[in-house]
Amino acid sequence: MNDSKFPKLLDYQALKQQFSDDGSQPAVSSAAENSAADHALSFEPKEAEKKPGLQGSRLRSYAFAVLTRKEYSKAELIDKLALYAESREEVTTLVDELSRENYQSDQRVAEIMLSSQKRKGKGPNQIKMKLKNKKIDTALIAEELKETDWVQQAYELKVRKYGTEVTKDPKIKAKQIRFLMYRGFEMDAIMKAISRKENDFQ
After folding, report:
1. Based on the number of CB atoms within 10 Å of its own CB, is 186 exposed (0-12), middle (13-18) or buried (19 or more)?
2. Using an 8 Å Cβ cutoff, are 108 and 77 in contact?
């Protein structure tokens, strides 16, 4: 190895002479080295962990910037802004104002989620659970949930996965039921979907 290309970072011989004329100074144990390293790390500056402390117009500007990128539920927006704000109370007041002015809307978030989850083949139970996770009242889209033909939704999903044949095999039927239940469909819609024949539409 070329020493000029890979220069030594430490001159060990010089270090030995510094601590002991004869170089016989006992080496520090690896455990002691690790302890010292951990001790040193514990005193590293933690500036990155400090909150920016946004407030007033700066907090409001940041809230608008966040909402232009994505729709947030009220609870989500409060939690997100609170990470960077000086005061959670100010955040709550601001988000209430943004909600009243319709810049933030749980209704819109719920409708977007309903449409998105239906496209993904998810049933009403899955959708309600996701809304609950975002702390959105399912009553906001109660009418849309009621008007959706969940039997048709479940049938289309079953056809994509298992085809149009109505099986009489109890094992296959149980598999189809589990699949649709996992997707969030209710049992009534599932049983109608897996029993529906292709000519039922004619």
Report:
1. middle
2. no
Q: Which tens digit of pLDDT belongs to each residue from 67-89? A: 999 999 999 999 999 999 989 99
Residue in this structure with the two tokens 């430490």, named with its chain if needed: 10
Looking at the DSSP bridge assignments, the partners of residue 85 are 54
How many angstroms separate the Cα of 186 from the Cα of each of 107, 147, 149, 190, 192?
24, 15, 12, 6, 10
Q: Which residues pair with 54 in a beta bridge?
A: 85
Q: Which is nearest to 183 in space by CA: 118, 135, 115?
A: 118
What residues contact residue 98 under an 8 Å CB cut-off, 6+ apart?
63, 67, 77, 104
Side chain identity at 9, as an amino acid letter? L
pTM: 0.67
List the structure tokens of 46: 């933690």
And the tokens for 1? 């190895």
